[in-house]
Amino acid sequence: MKKVFINSIGAITSQKTFDNSEFLNEIVNYSTTNISVVNPNYKAYLDAGSARRMAKGIKMGVVASKVALEEAGLESVDAVITGSGMGCVIESERFVAKIIDNNEEFLTPTSFIQSTHNTVGGQIALGIQCKGYNFTYVHSSSSFETALLDAQLQLELDEATNILVGGVDELGPHMIKVHGLIDHIKQEQTIDNLNILSSKTVGAVFSEGASFIVLSNAKQESTYAELIDVAIYNTLGLTRVETKLYEFLKQNNYTVNDIDAVVLGNNGDVNFDEYFNKLSEGVFANTQQVVYKHLIGEYKTASAFGVWLGAKMLKTQQMPDCIKLNDKAPSALNTILIYNQYRGDNHTFVMLRKC
Asked: Are residues 148 and 278 in the same domain?
């Protein structure tokens, strides 16, 4: 089977990540429990009419994909595969509100059209005139990894040459209210996001974002890393996480000692960070540990930024201090493992290797 390479990246998050020439040079600090993205200059990528009509999630996804495509030197791809846990939730909220307010009469279809989960992938494909495979996975917090696995299999089996893969989710007012009521969002009025991992309270800081990569079976000058493998486990007990980790490493002929850095999805929820602590305090106690959700918050496809982070570290051989959970820096970064779960479910492993 052919190898799979990450040839470019593009991310719009709560940090200034849309400029690939920088690597977390300037950190944005927040003191609230729900945070929005740092918006790029959308007019540089979209005409004024399109930017005005597009829902927030669509704009984020389209622009993040354009950044990735430009870096890869591509105008189009063979396939577009997207993951989204909530879809364009703001438009969904608007449509439902109009149904209630108008007593189910005289509804315009605009909000409904822009509310479906596959709207982002469809808009991207229309923009680049990609008439090939276009699929959107809605698998909660493993949506991005499922899209990544699909693309990996197609490229390994030589069914495509270049595939655009991404994860996108937005944050809506009603979503904030509902998740706040059930304690999925932290109840503190103000909280320093940079210290969230030591908060010892329930819930997370909710956010939004879009991260895209171009995967290819051909290495090029812009290549960031090689994608070795992806694994997804819907449900794992706390004691089985380490077992599945060893199985994942073994099937790829790796050991724990071969991992130079592990990227963990800790979000500061005292009830569920124990899954990450199980690894950080155990098998990876002597491995460099990296975190990112204190910077970008929690959303269903936040792990796509974890892959962005791993790829960026491998290419630049840099590790900003703001993402270090411990100080076990290796002499070189050759292999990185990314592990994520959300509220005890959808455990995912992604392994990247330096080219």
From this structure: no
Which among 193, 216, 239 is the end of a domain? Answer: 216
Q: Which residues pair with 340 in a beta bridge?
A: 348
Query: How much is the pLDDT for 291?
Result: 98
Q: What 8-state DSSP symbol labels residue 162? A: E
**pLDDT tens for residues 122-137?**
999 999 999 999 999 9
CB 83 within 8 A of CB 139: yes
Q: What is the DSSP string of 272-311?
A: TTHHHHHHHTTTTTTSEEEE-HHHH-B-TTTHHHHHHHHH
Q: 345 phi and psi, to 5 degrees?
A: -120, 170
Q: Distance between CA atoms of 147 and 104, rounded to whole angstroms?
A: 36
pLDDT at 235: 92
Considering the domain architecture, whether residues 306 and 331 belong to the same structural domain is answered as yes
**What sign has the CA pseudo-torsion 12, 13, 14, 17?**
negative
Q: Which residues of the chain have pLDDT under 50?
A: none
Q: What is the pTM of this model?
A: 0.94
Task: Tell the burial category of 108 from Cβ atoms under 10 Å away from its Cβ (0-12, 13-18, 19+).
Answer: exposed
**pLDDT at residue 246 in the model:** 97
pLDDT value for 110: 73
Q: Do 237 and 193 share a structural domain? A: no
Single out the residue of 115, 172, 123 nearest to residue 300, CA to CA.
172
The CATH number assigned to the domain holding 158 equals: 3.40.47.10
Cβ of 94: how many Cβ atoms within 10 Å? 20
Strand 261-264 and strand 288-291: the pairing is parallel
* N-to-C CA span, the chain: 17
What is the rounded CA–CA span in Å between residue 174 and residue 56? 15
Please check whether residues 171 and 34 belong to one and the same domain: yes
Same domain, 243 and 310: yes
Contact 40, 18 (CB under 8 A): yes
In order of 55, 99, 111, 137, 311, the CA distances from 102 in angstroms are: 22, 5, 14, 32, 48
Q: What is the pLDDT of residue 318?
A: 96
Which residue type occupies 133?
A: Y
Which two three-digit tokens encode residue 198? 């030591």
Domain containing 278: what range? 228-353
